[in-house]
Specification:
The chain has 421 residues and is an alpha/beta fold. The chain has helices at 15-28, 44-52, 66-72, 99-106, 123-132, 150-160, 195-209, 212-217, 251-259, 292-296, 299-308, 319-324, and strands at 2-7, 34-38, 57-59, 79-82, 110-115, 139-147, 167-172, 181-182, 185-186, 220-221, 237-241, 263-267, 280-283, 313-317, 327-329, 335-337, 344-347, 354-362, 371-377, 380-384, 390-393, 399-403, 405-407, 410-413, 416-420. It is elongated and about 70 Å long. It starts with a strand and ends with a strand.
């Protein structure tokens, strides 16, 4: 049970592409490896899984207890964690939940991926600063990314030599690997028809540029994990919407439900599949605004969802919450009728970023204990009327307006639940 963490001085340094390249390169060599993602993220983990063939979990140092993180990190397969943002960047005001917190909780070394495209000798000051900033966060190696030329690489290596940190490799700008993105992040892994070709290209670049044997030698043992608290299942038989419009469900929560004996049944609203016979319906987040016209025509799905509300609890998160409402207005201003189970109208034509961790206190619905979650969406509520689902506070403990709606056995909100508080 060994691992390490990839991090960087800031966002946009190339962590994801280098992580994917390393995962695929090691897998092609016959070395079993798995991945985890620091913080709330639905997109990157599915790419990690495609790269190495093993499940990827989220490890969130703000929303999860230490025991939970250590338990989720356990496996006989070596673990590579991709950090979020910069190494010490976390929730306001003090950076709680940063990748550095994860490194301390798990006792793992950090490999710093540095975008060197706009610096030469100054790289030494950057790396020294990150290495010395916190004695409990161990920066054990450096990968140079977006290097301009062999001359540029020599300057960078010469500047870093006095620090004594292993330089594991240098990826040149001409080898840079970019991926398509949209308003909520990367295009989803399942939507990319050329994904395997991209991953193999990333692996080719990594194998040529990075010393993978030296990288693996930096891995350190993971701590033994005690039994941790899990998310209890809301029912015995759970139907879960799962397709390109409803892809944002956390594997650790679904795993908790399965391990507690619940039966999980997946179905696709985009394929107009009816809600299966169940005790509880879960509509996760995703991109319903991109598929609003198709969802509005999914008559079998919508009618079965309305019928299910007569005998089953129904819960929607973010995009799922939007589909439970009366309508979604798409980016072009076109209004599309939805299930009408909540008195709610949402719009992606009127965009505003809502982002941050949330402490959630249920006011009813299917949840009975305090929760930690996050909010990340651009759509807005044009109209919302009814009893709220959650009392909410931000990461600084400041009270926010109540979130979500409850109507009979139907509830939802823009919050994505991460774990029990």
């Amino acid at each position: 049970m060994r691992g390490l963490i990839f991090s960087a001085p800031g966002s946009g340094s190339g962590k994801t592409t280098i992580t994917l390249g390393v995962l695929r390169a090691l897998t092609r060599r016959g070395t079993a490896v798995r991945a985890a993602k620091s913080g709330p993220d639905y997109i990157d983990p599915r790419f990690h899984e495609a790269a190495c063939g093993n499940a990827c979990v989220n490890l969130d140092a703000w929303a999860m207890k230490k025991q939970r993180i250590r338990a989720l990190a356990q496996s006989e397969i070596p673990l590579i964690i991709e950090g979020a943002m910069g190494l010490f960047d976390g929730a306001p005001p003090d950076g709680d939940g940063a990748t550095a917190d994860l490194a301390r909780i798990l006792g793992l070394p950090v490999v710093l991926i540095v975008d060197a495209s706009h610096m030469a000798q100054s790289i030494a000051a950057v790396v020294r600063g990150f290495s010395d900033h916190d004695p409990e966060t161990r920066v054990m190696g450096v990968i140079l990314n977006k290097v301009g030329s062999s001359r540029h690489e020599r300057m960078l290596r010469r500047a870093l030599t006095p620090l004594g940190l292993p330089i594991l490799g240098a990826v040149y700008r001409t080898q840079s690997i970019t991926m398509p993105s949209r308003h909520l992040g990367l295009v989803q892994a399942a939507e990319n028809p050329d994904l395997n070709a991209f991953l193999d290209h990333a692996a080719d670049v990594v194998e040529a540029a990075i010393d993978l044997d030296q990288l693996c030698e930096l891995m350190r043992p993971l701590p033994v994990a005690p039994v941790s608290k899990k998310m209890p299942p809301p029912a015995q038989n759970i139907a879960i919407a799962h397709d390109a419009a409803f892809a944002f469900s956390y594997p650790h929560i679904l795993g908790d439900w399965r391990q507690s004996g619940a039966s999980l049944i997946l179905f696709s609203p985009l394929n107009n599949e009816p809600v299966p016979d169940c005790d509880f319906v879960f509509l996760p987040g995703g991109y319903p605004e991109l598929h609003a016209a198709q969802l509005a025509q999914a008559d079998r799905f919508l009618s079965s969802l309305i019928n299910a509300a007569q005998h089953s609890d129904i819960y929607g998160e973010c995009g799922g919450y939007m589909v439970l409402g009366n309508s979604i207005t798409d980016a072009d201003g076109n209004r599309h009728n939805m299930a009408g189970l909540l008195n709610l109208d949402t719009s992606f034509a009127s965009r505003k970023l809502h982002l941050g961790y949330r402490s959630l206190t249920p006011l009813g619905g299917v949840f009975s204990q305090p929760l930690n979650g996050h909010e990340f969406h651009y759509s807005t509520e044009l109209f919302a009327q009814g009893d709220p689902l959650f009392k909410s506070k931000d990461a600084e403990g400041q009270s926010l307006p109540d979130m979500g709606l409850i109507s009979g056995r139907v509830s939802g909100s823009y919050a994505h639940v991460i774990d029990v508080a």
